[in-house]
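Re: How this chain folds, sequence and tokenised backbone to follow
How to read it: Take the token row as a discrete description of the fold.
Start of record: The labelled sequence and token lines come straight after this line.
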Amino acid sequence: QVQLEESGGGLVQAEGSLRLSCAASTSAFSRYVGGWFRQIPGKEREFVAGISRTGSSTYYADSAKGRFTISRDGAKNTMYLQMNSLKPEDTAVYYCAAGNLLGSRSSSTYNTWGQGTQVTVSS
């Protein structure tokens, strides 16, 4: 069973940048589609970005297009989310996840989750 752990969250001013990391416990992570989601208290978990097993294909929520970049490093068993031009509305807990359905934006298709990392963007 793969375990995931996020890091890199924090407090940043609007228009600033952060890079989130998602470290997997084993190389088996390479067998899974990767995804980043975010959640605000009282709201459902929202898809942010996804990436194929090899990293050759990526897809984004409209809110992330042009500002966020998802990537993965197979040698390090790690997935990343580079976030630029951050806005206060990006404030949320960010989760990384592993699943089996490429292109899916539904949290129900991802079966392994990290604990989350808080991102706060001040105006």
Observations:
- Residues 36 and 50 are 6 Å apart (CA to CA).
- The mean pLDDT is 97.
